[in-house]
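subagent[fold] <- orchestrator: predict structure for attached chain, return tokens only, no commentary.
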Amino acid sequence: MPRAIIRTALILLLCALTSLTAEGQTTVTNPKVVEFDPSADHAAVTAGGQSMVSRYDLQIYLQGATQPVSTASLGKPAPATDGKIRVDFSTILVGWPLVDGSYEARVAAIGPTGTGLSDTSNLFAFQSTVVPPACTYALSSTAQTVTASGGSASVTVTASATTCGWTASSNATWATVAPASGTGTGTVVVTVAANTGAGRSATVTIGGQTYSVSQAAATCTYTLSSSTGSIAAAGGTSSVTVNTNITTCGWTASSNATWATVSPASGTGSGAVTVTAAANTGAARTATVTAGGNTYTVSQAAAPACTFALSPSTVSATGAGGASTVSLTASAATCAWTASTATSWITVNSAAGTGSGVVSFTTASNATGAARTGTLTAGGKTVTVTQAAVLPPARPTGVQVIVK
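subagent[fold] -> orchestrator:
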């Protein structure tokens, strides 16, 4: 049979304040720690391999009573270097602190073979006049994440006593708390306003504890300062501003026409986009620029009507033929022209050009025996070419036949 657990040594309850009873016995007031010698079987085991001591229980009695008013398990702490076991029972005793009065205690060694109960401890008392412990606070959660649209959440502040007062405050105007103060355990509601910008965070302090609030950034939105723009036929630029609600919002810009280019092609936050158009040599045209998902339509006027003038308008060519030129004046550098002739003995060397220039042509030798006239056309204007006939050789003179 396993041996019975022997009884523990006399209990001593510790506290800073002690006094002597009329009989000379030391009385501890408002104690927190129980000290005792462990059972002699503290480290022993049964034949079946079980610990002889499973745990120690603290039993507290009113002075002279036979039934405990409170019992708490102390577990099985390891003895200190001096061989004694000490346990702070203020955190494990139900109904702490006990009502005013005189008490004594016993420690029971509990094991599989039974219980060994110590002698009674020294007397100790509880007096409510002692300064209560400092208030402590705990929060049901320490952080909250809120969507950009805002909202509210509740956090419970648990106080160590019903008389413990606390305050609640926020370091951000967009995160408000209610109530701003309370006593004992309570609930604080944190209300977060809608976010129209970048992600942000706030710190709420409740009972000296930190509660962090994080809010997501608002969805990026984009608008343009204008929906249309125009550029002169000669070319140039037109600008439009991309407006965003958040400085970190990125955007891109592009054009659907090769003659209208955009710069920059991307950006972050609000910024200007410049559209550059080349000179227009034809009909009026439009391009669509997309910036930040919005459309900006650029119109460019048609090229102006081109006019031309030839100088001279008549040319006299020698009968032997050769190269000749006339000057073509255009009303604009972008004005295109062509030159041609229906006269067989005139060959146009400068068949096309843009803007003002020189038209070169060549006349063939005139062996018809008579003057002739032909034309060529450049830029819609006509040049008349008159060519004299090739003159025969001068006639011989002093011709005679001599017979010898």
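orchestrator: received. Logging for downstream: The CA atoms of residues 174 and 398 lie 126 Å apart. Confidence is low (pLDDT under 50) at residues 1-24.
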